[in-house]
TrEMBL record:
This is Anaphase-promoting complex subunit 4 WD40 domain-containing protein. WD repeats lie at residues 239-280, 427-462, 527-561. It comes from Acorus gramineus. Residues 384-438 form the Anaphase-promoting complex subunit 4-like WD40 domain. It comes from the Eukaryota. Keywords: Coiled coil, WD repeat.
Length: 561
């Protein structure tokens, strides 16, 4: 009885919520005259056989039978669902027989027009029944004669009555009881989660206090970037040829080629050998600002170029031609980053829609992460980011390509399992947008550079723990260089971190791991100067050689001792 009253209260609550006041009054009137307070199977039978069938309300009949099926959901109720399905077939056939007996062949044809495809997909041998409205005397046909007999109808009525009486009277109320207990359990879980949330908030405040103290200690213990000595250079070579500020430059996987791009949509390929002068291999005209570059990881032949016009081009260095020209959807025209897997023939594109703001950061809208097959040049999947996700600015694979890190303009870092195409974790890394993200040398940590100029090294073994931090805001201001983002690069040993700069020099932070483990001064260097801001950086894959691209239209290759 308690469960019945609980169900009635749920119905009343729903009617009040929807504003169905007339229905509520009728419901309360019927409750007041309900003496037995029990499941009334006769009213269900009258509804089916005295209303829906005689009045040819096929849609309501089918809807009611579907509702009955929804009352059985668990695998343990498979036998009940099977029985109900057989009864459903018989009831629908009775509907057809009644229409024929009433000389309403049009209702049979109308019924098949609406539900015919569904019936044919079942294993109940409905095919012969599609001929019945066109037969002269189907009641005399041996295949259908039994369905026109009173004995068959009486047996059907009895079967439906017994089924509803024996099953729904217990099962439906049992489900209400289960639902009631589930709600109680959920309320208890919510109280426990609120308590846990309070504890986590207290822990977060403690961690923020520790982080603030760490930053203060950093400022006391280390040299400032202005005090860094100039790097000791073995040689330096300057590439000229671009006619607008450099937006990106990248060493190829083996370091034998260099790609440089400028905001006027020009990409130049340079053949590089430290023992011979550099020569230009090719020039690519893309017709839109170049926002991202990446080389295929298994060879030095294939370069991917992402533009601000939604284009992704694949350039073959040996053939000196574009081998594939892809376009993202018009909704996401800005290709902010491209990353090739170090193992599989795939790459991921981080595309962004256009925002409505006036600043660089506000001009970026929502994000789309697409995985592409480099053999077929087709999109394979879209990585999940939730509804209306903020733009993704930077991507980085781990060494075996199983994990992808992505940074976003809302300060989040996301981590994806590429084999499952699922996000496995994520955390708020900055109070501002994150412009660049890199895995640490042993992949137990990850570096992030925020548009506020702050650099953090995050532990991947103890998520949320900051292993090292640095404030280089005097070098990195989001709006100053006019490109989509600042960036950073680690050398092949993971001991030198090179960062872009609004100044003519860039800082090189050195011995990051050592600094995180011992107290003392952090060493670092400054690059030799360009004549304008340094807009892009990269390291040679094996040698102590780095690239710098500048707003002065030049690219420099520098080897340090």
């Amino acid at each position: 009885m308690d469960n019945m009253q609980y169900a009635e209260e749920l119905v009343k609550e729903f009617l009040v919520f929807r504003g169905f006041m007339n229905t509520l009054q009728i419901f309360e009137t019927e409750l007041s005259t309900d003496v037995g307070k029990a499941f009334q199977v006769d009213k269900i039978l009258d509804l089916i056989f005295s209303v829906y069938v005689p009045k040819f309300q096929a849609d309501k009949l089918v809807g009611l039978l579907s509702f009955f099926k929804q009352c059985f959901s668990s695998s343990s109720e498979a036998a009940l669902i099977d029985t109900l399905s057989k009864l459903e077939v018989s009831i629908l056939r009775y509907y057809i027989v009644h229409a024929l007996n009433s000389a309403r062949q049009d209702k049979v044809i109308e019924f098949y027009g609406t539900y015919g495809n569904v019936l044919l997909q079942r294993c109940d041998d409905w095919t012969p029944w599609f001929a019945i409205p066109y037969m002269k005397n189907p009641n005399l046909d041996p295949q259908f004669r039994v369905y026109f007999s009173k004995e068959w109808f009486d047996a059907l009525l009895l079967l439906v009555r017994n089924f509803l009486s024996e099953i729904f009277n217990g099962i439906h109320i049992l489900q209400i009881s289960i639902e009631k207990n589930t709600i109680k359990r959920l309320k208890k879980d919510i109280r426990q989660l609120n308590l846990k949330l309070s504890q986590l908030q207290a822990m977060l405040e403690a961690k923020e206090s520790e982080l603030s103290q760490l930053r203060t200690e950093d400022r006391r213990a280390v040299l400032t970037e202005e005090e860094f000595p100039e790097a000791k250079v073995e040689f330096q070579e300057t590439f000229l040829g671009h006619t607008s500020p450099i937006s990106r430059c990248r060493f190829s996987a083996a370091g034998t080629n260099i790609a440089s791009a400028s905001i006027d949509g020009t990409v130049r390929i340079w053949t590089y050998d430290s023992s011979t002068p550099t020569s230009r291999n090719a020039t690519i005209y893309c017709g839109a600002e170049i926002m991202s570059l990446d080389w295929e990881c298994k060879s030095d032949r294939l370069l991917l170029v992402g533009t601000g016009g939604g284009g992704i081009k694949a350039w073959n260095v040996d053939a000196k031609r574009v081998v594939c020209d892809l376009n993202t959807s018009a909704e996401f025209p800005s290709i902010l980053d491209l990353k090739c897997s170090p193992v599989d023939p795939i790459f991921v594109s981080a595309a962004a829609s256009r925002g409505k703001g006036s600043s660089n950061i506000k001009r970026l809208g929502f994000a789309s992460l697409t995985v592409w097959n480099m053999k077929t040049w087709k999109a394979m999947s879209v990585l999940p980011l939730g509804k209306d996700p903020p733009a993704i600015t930077s991507l980085c694979f781990n060494h075996n390509g199983k994990i992808l890190a992505a940074s976003a303009i809302d300060g989040m870092i996301h981590m994806f399992d590429m084999s499952a195409s699922l996000q496995i974790t994520g955390w708020p890394a900055h109070d501002s947008a994150v412009s660049s993200v890199l895995f640490g040398p042993d992949e137990t940590s990850i570096f992030s550079l925020g548009t506020d100029g702050k650099i953090f090294e995050w532990s991947l073994q103890n998520q949320g723990q900051v292993l090292w931090s640095r404030d280089c805001s005097r070098f990195c201001r989001w709006e100053s260089i006019g490109t989509s983002r600042h960036e950073m690069a680690l050398d092949s040993n993971g001991r030198r971190l090179l960062v872009t700069s609004d100044s003519v020099r860039s800082p090189i932070y050195q011995s990051l791991v050592l600094f995180a483990q011992v107290q003392g001064h952090m060493t670092g260097f400054k690059t030799l100067p360009h004549s304008a801001a340094i807009t892009t950086v990269d390291w040679h894959p094996t040698l102590p050689i780095f690239l710098t691209g500048s707003a002065d239209h030049s690219i420099r290759v520098t080897s340090i001792l």
